[in-house]
Design goal:
This protein has eleven helices and nine strands. The protein is an alpha/beta fold.
């Protein structure tokens, strides 16, 4: 699996604790780090020791928003044939990895769901709340002041009910980088993420290219659930989002199947580190 992060070791700690508490532990976690400071590396080292997770820290120097680039390097560095993507502020429900594995099918991707927690609830989440699974428990969330309304259906514990809800939802099974999975070979086929895109839509762009290549989504927003911790987005720029939408419209109109500036175009970068060692993850 691939977890993207940038300078939020507090949130990343909760996310990694969530993966340490999964119903299955047979997986590798590749942290795709877009130039965080030394605090993130120190956290990953500590979590590797404390949780026993197989953690691979793929890092490059901070040179502005280069999330697509570090994600592409993480894809190359990963050893698994099937990759689950998430963000370093999305705490998984205990069955997330198991559910993605169960739903995985040849030539498909799985589109999971997420619930955004307000800042007041996010501030109350502790390490023990993650370890014990309370962070995704509807009763605990309500007791801490959250009123999710109809969104509470995404926390349905009945597998049968969750499956029915996924079948009937009108929401498209888009590829969202905070909770989606597919085959590594499929990602290489579409040339990974588009490095020419800034924040806002780079994951959807990859999903549309997958669909254009015949790799379609399986809706799992009620079955594969993550809890999105609140954070501000000072890097969200309207002009960048508009340009991203131009690229997305082009992908859909021209039925593009490969990123124009993706995995194959990765340039040599002496700043790249894997677990602190200067190793270039190309080839």
């Amino acid at each position: 699996m691939v977890v993207s992060t940038y300078d939020r070791p507090d949130a990343l700690e909760l996310v990694l604790l969530g993966y340490a508490a999964q119903t299955t532990r047979d997986f590798e976690v590749v942290v795709a780090d877009d130039g965080s400071g030394p605090g993130t590396a120190a956290l990953i080292d500590r979590m590797r020791s404390e949780t026993g997770l197989r953690l691979l820290h793929v890092w490059h120097a901070d040179s502005g928003f280069r999330k697509s680039v570090i994600l592409n390097r993480a894809i190359l560095a990963a050893s698994a044939d099937y990759l689950l993507f998430t963000d370093g502020d999305c705490v998984p429900r205990r069955d997330l990895v198991e559910t993605h594995r169960r739903l995985a099918r040849p030539g498909r991707y799985v589109a999971g769901g997420y619930l955004k927690l307000p800042s007041s609830v996010t501030a109350r989440v502790t390490a023990n709340d993650v370890r014990e699974g309370r962070v995704s428990d509807l009763g605990w969330l309500r007791a801490n002041g959250w009123r999710p309304g109809r969104r509470a259906l995404r926390l349905a514990r009945s597998r049968a009910l969750a499956q029915i809800l996924d079948w009937i939802t009108p929401t498209a099974a888009d590829f969202h980088g905070n909770n989606a999975s597919t085959w590594r070979s499929a990602l290489v086929k579409v040339n990974g993420f588009e490095a020419d895109m800034g924040y806002g839509g780079l994951d959807r762009a990859l999903g549309y290219r997958l669909a254009n290549a015949g790799i379609h989504g399986i809706q799992a927003r009620h079955r594969a659930v993550a809890m999105h911790l609140h954070h501000e987005r000072p890097y969200k720029r309207p002009e960048v989002i508009r340009q991203n939408e131009v690229i997305i419209r082009r992908i859909r109109k021209q039925r593009e199947t490969r990123a124009r500036n993706g995995i194959a175009e990765l340039a040599s970068d002496p700043s790249v580190r894997i677990n602190g060692t200067p190793i270039e993850p190309l080839g």
